[in-house]
Amino acid sequence: MLLRNLMLLVLATSMAAITGLSHAGATQWIPIKVENGAFLIETRIGGTDGYSLIDTGASINGINQRFVRANKLDLGSRRSIDIIGVYGRERRPLYHRVSANLFGFDTELHDVADLNLGRPELQLILGAGFLRQFIVQFDYPNQRIRLLTRDMADMKKLSNVKSKPDQETGSVLAKVRLNDEHNTWLMVDTGATGSTLLDRGIATKRGWLNKFPNEVVLGRGVISAGQLERFRLQSLKIGDFEIADTLVSVPAAGQKLELFRKETRTGSNLKRIQSKSKGILGYDVLKHFVVTIDYRIGKIHLEPGAAN
């Protein structure tokens, strides 16, 4: 799930202090719920239990407007920001402080955007404002997660995937090789529940839409929905690993995605930094691994996982 925040101040000021994890250490492995490929942890807000999404593709933290309304929460003063999703953009409220219980600890999230996350039992999206504080391990095969302080691991040395932070979104990018034909950078997104998403131009240039059987499907984001063409590539390589028969989607003909918008001028001497991402790497690939991410420096380690 992709969220871009046009106010860079939010990235600088969003904080969530987890009591008990301020020095060298790690949480215990915490079971999570995997729902349609999304990583959900148990959370509590305003005395109400629910689930929240851990989303490495989100540049900010967000709260479900349906949850807020269903529980008649008064979250205090707020302002508005522009939120850009995969399929569009909207201006949304921003709550200054949201108290929550995460990973068994009481914490306070700052600058939390109001988003459409579906049913009210889904409470939060935890993105950059939360993830930048820790090294995070996602054990996909065993459906569990834990947080580590940076004293525990030097990710610059341990990283076994060519990766880097994206200047535009702040998200983590990984370099992949597609079908042994094309190298590109993809956003590592634990909130992306389906296939690998690519710029249509890549598939067109390589002739994949003519070479491989494809179908049109509906894709949904936090702002709106759009049509995708989906097919399978023979292989996707990331680091030293290769995943065969990889499910891939591209925007349908004529479908515009904000993720792939071109660089535009914003003033006589200024221009927006263009994202280097040419797509999203999500559940269909990550499900094979224990994924360790240092979000702040954009480094990743992959270890093939097996269910216990």
CATH architecture of the largest domain: Beta Barrel
Reading off the top of the CATH hierarchy, the class of the largest domain is best stated as: Mainly Beta
Q: Quick one: overall form?
A: globular
Helical residue percent band:
10-25%
- Could you give the order of strands across the largest sheet? 4-5-10-6-9-8
What is the domain tally?
2
Number of strands: 22
Radius of gyration: 19 Å
Please give the alpha-carbon distance between the first and last residues.
28 Å
- Main sheet: strands, sense, barrel: 6 strands, mixed, barrel
Question: Which strand-content bin applies to the residues?
Answer: over 45%
- For CATH, the homologous superfamily of the largest domain is named as Acid Proteases
Structural class label: mainly beta
- The overall pLDDT, averaged over residues, is 80
Order of helices and strands: EHEEEEEHEEEEHEEHEEEEHHEEEEHEE
Oligomer: single chain
Q: Any low-confidence stretches, pLDDT <50, length ≥5?
A: 1-23, 263-273
Number of helices, where a helix is a run of at least 4 consecutive DSSP H or I residues? 7
